[in-house]
Structure formats: C-alpha cells, structure tokens
Amino acid sequence: MTDPKALRNAFGAFATGVTVVTTRQPDGTPRGFTANSFTSVSLDPPLLLVCLAKTAHSANVFATAPHFAVNILAEDQKAVSGLFASRTPDKFAQCTWTPGPADMPLIDGSLAQFTCANHQIIDAGDHLILIGRIDHFVTTEGQPLGYFRGNYFSIGIEKDLAEAAAAAKGSRLGAVLACNGGVLLKDDGAALSLPLAPKPTLDSLTASLTAQGLTPQIDFVYATFDDRTTGGHAIYYHGSVSGILPQGYRILPLADLATASIANPAEAALLHRYAEDYRNGSFSIYHGTETTGQVRQLGA
Ligand SMILES: Cc1cc2nc3c(=O)[nH]c(=O)nc-3n(C[C@H](O)[C@H](O)[C@H](O)COP(=O)(O)O)c2cc1C
Fold it and tell me: pTM, whole model, 2 decimals?
C-alpha cells in the first residue's frame, strides 16, 4: 500500500505554477479554490484540466457548474493563493476580481485567465478531473508565482538577480552551504570567508567545489547586493555540500557564527541572517547594498 504522505511529497518534486479556479454556484455566489494541478490538454479543440479533491467544500459546485475559469497567478499573488486555499467563507470579499465572459469571476492581476465550458468530468480516485473547453482567454506580461515542495518561489526575481550579477563588472558569486550542522567557510589562517566562484556564474561555483572533492547542492539565491567597496555586484546562493573537507576550509557550527571572525562585513551580516533563518525554520532573500537592503521572506 502506497504511503499517501510520501506520495504527496514525491508529487511535490514537480515544480508548477499556481492557479485559482473560479465559478458561480446556482444562486450566483462566486466560488473558487487554489490549484496547481492545472494542465493544458489540447489546442484543437482548446481544452485544459484541473484536478479537484472530492473533499473540497466546492467539489459539488464545480461538478455541476456549466462554466468555470482558471486564473494563472503572478508572483505577487501569494496572498491570493493562500486565500483561495483556505476555507474562508467569503474569499471574494478579500481580493479584487471582475466578472468576465459567462459571468465567471476573474481574479485581477492574474497572468492569464481562461473561461471554460464544462467539457467533461472524470471521476479519478479521490479527485475529480475537470476538463474545460476554453471559450475565452486573455494573457498579460509578468512573472509567475511558482510552487515547489510545498513552498512558493519566484522565477522572475532569481533570474533577474542572476542576470544582473553576471552582467556587472567586478561581480562575485558565492554560496552559504550547510554541511554537518554548520556552514562551509574558507579559512586562510587569519579570517574566514564564504566560498566564492572563480568566475561569477553558478556553473563556475559548482565546478570549483566539485574539483575540490565536494558535492554541492545549490537551492536558491540567498542574497544579492551592490557592493560599493568593490564597485561590483555580489550574489550568494543557498545550498548544502557533502564530501571530505578540502584543505583551507572549515565547517563552522551555527552556534559560532555570531562570534566568528568573518573578513567581509557583508558576509558576516549574511551569516547572521542565515543562523537566524535556521533557528526560525524559514528562509529569506536579501537585496540591497553591502550595508542596507530588504529581506524578503521565502517561506518554511
Ligand atoms: C499551491 C496550492 C495548490 C493546490 N492545488 C490543489 C489542487 O490542484 N486541487 C485541489 O483539489 N486542491 C488544491 N489545493 C488545496 C485547495 O486549494 C484547498 O483545499 C481549498 O480549501 C479548497 O477550497 P474549498 O474547500 O473552499 O473548495 C492547493 C493548495 C495550494 C496552497
């Protein structure tokens, strides 16, 4: 017998966008739920699908509604996703939306909106597969909201930051890498620093760590800032590393990060934030200069 929790986690390895699926119930009240099971199905005829849990409060409404709409969320619509994933009674009072074709509720600010006629409903285990035939759709420019392993992510920010870092002269690219309950640091005997790539690209970082016998796993951008002391742009990734410790490196336990002698003040601040994030069980991105900037929470 398959372990449903393990299976849900395995499904979560498939990175997706996030949609809000909406309709009207017979008395005209708007209904909606968050779904990442959206899939494009066919161009001719134009079909899409969404899987809806039979346990959802709105399952009966969607199973019988003649029309529904799919709204693809933009990167700044994390709160909208959270709202429609909740069982709040009046979700539509807490967001901005507009009635569209077939009077379907369309969420303002979405990247794409598809209005569909109910084409077919397939009973599939504990879900219903809603297949919609697209009558109308609109798209706008913007960056999508992403979802991966139970956390939201933003493709746009990471791509923009990585490109900005690679383009700027005097850029440096490094990483804060978890290793055996601590962080991997370079140790020149006098002071400690974060490992840097020979060239400011992610490939260069992973290649140089691999060449030293380490196996890095890079997760996401952790900090990016204009360093006015060097005139360049600094970008630091977050990840983990395994392997035998090469010469000139050491693993600093998290508890020692606050008091360690870190050569670069920006790196010291970054490691402070890392230790705090670790304690809080959530992660963030820093964007700004080497001394001031904004910290954006990423989630658990
Ligand atoms: C990112 C995300 C994706 C989700 N995807 C789906 C999905 O594809 N199908 C589904 O039935 N529920 C999905 N859910 C859960 C529903 O949104 C949630 O159960 C919601 O309460 C259903 O609304 P209702 O009970 O008012 O119908 C998702 C939740 C989140 C946060």
Answer: 0.62
